[in-house]
């Protein structure tokens, strides 16, 4: 059985923008999940970059990610992560990603290096090469 991955919006955007770490994200697409909250973040940034709604939607759909809804259970899990993530300044979207990683027992990919210091019971990897 292959390992499951949860992608943070920053990891997806790195892939779509062909930034450092894009190759790592591309390597797990067939095994990757994304939370609906993080999908919103990705689509919002694509619109900010000047894509039309249709273009943004097509770019996201081409990734063929498995989307998981931000339901009541994930909402609670994200809230319970607040004390352990507060010092890192993590947003609701960040915590939604982490909560999905916990729920799916999945490896989390992000571009945010400080996440690697979190002790939340799942592994977190920054896809950015070390400077």
Explain briefly what this protein structure is.
The chain has a single domain (5-126), classed as Rossmann fold. It has helices at residues 9-16, 22-26, 36-48, 53-61, 72-80, 82-85, 92-104; strands at residues 5-7, 32-35, 66-68, 107-110, 124-126. The protein has 131 residues and is of the alpha/beta class.
Key features of this structure:
about 130 residues; five-stranded parallel sheet; 7 helices; alpha/beta; about 45% helix; single chain; Rossmann fold
What name does CATH use for the topology?
Rossmann fold
Number of domains: 1
Low-confidence stretches: none
Q: Treating each run of at least 4 consecutive H or I residues as one helix, how many helices?
A: 7
Number of E-state strands: 5
Order of helices and strands: EHHEHHEHHHEE
Radius of gyration in whole Å, from Cα? 14 Å
Bin the helical content.
40-55%
Span of the ends, CA to CA: 33 Å
Please list the strands of the largest sheet in the order they lie side by side.
3-2-1-4-5
Report the sheet-strand fraction: 5-15%
Q: Which geometry do the CA atoms define?
A: globular
Oligomer: single chain
Helix and strand content put the structural class at: alpha/beta
**CATH architectural category:** 3-Layer(aba) Sandwich
Any idea of the CATH class?
Alpha Beta
Tell me about the biggest sheet?
A: 5 strands, parallel
Q: For the residues shown, what is the average pLDDT?
A: 95
Topology:
Layout: E1 5-7, H1 9-16, H2 22-26, E2 32-35, H3 36-48, H4 53-61, E3 66-68, H5 72-80, H6 82-85, H7 92-104, E4 107-110, E5 124-126
Parallel strand pairs: 1-2, 1-4, 2-3, 4-5
Helix pairs in contact: 1-3, 3-4, 5-7
């Amino acid at each position: 059985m292959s390992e499951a991955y949860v992608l943070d919006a920053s990891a997806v955007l790195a892939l779509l923008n062909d930034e450092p770490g894009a190759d790592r994200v591309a390597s797990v697409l067939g095994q990757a999940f994304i939370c609906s909250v993080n999908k919103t973040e990705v689509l919002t940034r694509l619109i900010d970059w000047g894509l039309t709604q249709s273009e943004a939607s097509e770019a996201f759909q081409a990734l063929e990610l498995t989307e998981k809804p931000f339901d009541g259970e994930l909402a609670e899990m994200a809230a319970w992560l607040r004390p352990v993530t507060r010092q890192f300044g993590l947003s609701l979207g960040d915590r939604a990603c982490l909560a999905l990683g916990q729920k799916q027992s999945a490896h989390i990919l992000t571009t945010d290096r400080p996440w690697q210091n979190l002790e939340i019971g799942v592994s977190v990897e920054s896809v950015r090469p070390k400077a």
